[in-house]
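quick one before i forget lol
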Amino acid sequence: MNFIHKFNDLCIKVVQTISLLLLFLLTISTMTGVIYRYVLKSPIIWLYEFVVLIFAWLVFSGVVMAYSRGENINLTFLMNSLNEKGRLVLKTVIDLINMIFICMIIYFGFQIVKSTASQSYQTINVSLGWFYASFPVMGIPMIVTIIDRSIRRFENIETRN
């Protein structure tokens, strides 16, 4: 199980690095677009599509980081009303539902990527598949994180007994 913990830590570090680079690129691109449009009165036409592409990847990398920190949406009122065993069962059920949902998104997401791979943006010569690939690609570290979190949860139970 130590391998999964290390692999998850590596995935999270890679996603954090990618997120940082994307955030920097998004900030620079947006600032450049504003300067060219409003100061120089000469908008960069392709910049909008480029920013949307970066933003999609940044959003889904943020979702991975939220999962890794356990900051995804929770029903805290329900969790708080249960005893420790009930919380464990509910968290396990939620993890299973999340994994099924993410696996479906990964599968169907790659189908969408395949169907849009031959199409490109209007102003940049980039396949639309890159936009749609953001969730299925980032879904993989989400699955790894959920598996790691579940294993850690059950390891904590074993060490308490």
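fyi The chain has a mean pLDDT of 91.
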